[in-house]
Amino acid sequence: MPDILHKVGIKSPSVNEPYQAVATIKGLSDWWTNETQGESKVDGTIRFRFGGNGGFDMKVLELDPGKRVLWQVAGGPDEWIGTKISFDFKREGESTGVLFKHQGWKEPVEFMHHCSTKWATFLLSLKSLVETGKGLPYPNDVMIDHVASIR
Amino acid sequence: MPDILHKVGIKSPSVNEPYQAVATIKGLSDWWTNETQGESKVDGTIRFRFGGNGGFDMKVLELDPGKRVLWQVAGGPDEWIGTKISFDFKREGESTGVLFKHQGWKEPVEFMHHCSTKWATFLLSLKSLVETGKGLPYPNDVMIDHVASIR
What we know:
homodimer, alpha+beta, 7-stranded antiparallel beta sheet, 7 strands, globular
């Protein structure tokens, strides 16, 4: 099955800053979408919304401090349901390497190509948040298309 | 085998502007790396360089005007040799959809994660070039890491 894979290197005092930005509702609100609600705890559900354009419900499967965050998609577009999204953190000199995987896509549909590019922009938003204090979460996200509903 | 997949939507008068930006040495120089040389013709070789950080030699396999560009990697990092890179263009309203694939990776190594994210930034550079006349090719590329040699 095809996967979406990404990596960014984030300058940070420790792995903790990038980890907290992925493991907390406040952090996620500051780099992915400012419409983030729910409980970031194992077996909790986090709801990500994007104005009137729908969104995703993620069940939290793993929260391993400073090391790993794993979600499974419980609600959202058909293609996303059941897929898993992981963030792995590791120290690399003065940076934290963040390895990202969105796995379990049934087919490499065109929507998957779009989501791959869009994930890259959000991971760069995460990098910016940790390094500068300011990310580019929805509705200030980087546009990769001209169709309003898919941005 | 794992693939890198991306899609951007580029506002353009026709498919021709994005196509030309991928099918010509001048276009490639303006969004990927300003150290681009060679011949963009079928069976020709294009050499992409990035200062002292090496680069890639691509053999041109297909040039289908307004529709498709296909390269095969003939020189570069071991993981890239033999892989294929394609750009497919199609009209979508006032935009051109560009579907990108970098296929034939043997393993989903960490370097592949990095390249996936970096390709996204270059495809957004292509989008910017066509829409605004200005891209962000090397050495003005978007940094996704803090290790100088892999940026």
